[in-house]
Design a protein that fits this description.
Helices cover about 55% and strands about 10% of the residues. It is mainly alpha-helical and about 90 residues long.
Length: about 90
């Protein structure tokens, strides 16, 4: 289930999408892109994107501590939100 994002989170999503589209990226890449120095804040961003259905997370098969991230297409997200809301 996809949920609409709050403005503060959507702005970060948009910035990532502008650079990465649906390409995979790592934690350090996203930290540099968002210029985020605080690990806790970055973790909240990634966690909230995932929880709301806008981000897919894959564990590294060789090291479970490492993750790979990929954003879902915003057009698909909007269509899914509209379909689920039954407006």
């Amino acid at each position: 289930m996809v949920k609409p994002l709050p403005k503060w989170l959507f702005l970060r999503y948009a910035r990532i999408w502008k650079e990465k589209n649906s390409a995979e990226f790592g934690y350090d890449e996203i930290r540099a892109l968002l210029r985020e120095r605080d690990d806790r804040t970055l973790s909240v961003i990634l966690s909230d994107l995932r929880r709301n259905g806008w981000l897919e997370v894959t564990l590294d098969p060789l090291d479970a501590r490492k993750r790979t991230y990929r954003l879902r297409n915003p057009e698909e997200m909007v269509e899914e939100i509209a379909r689920e809301s039954k407006l």
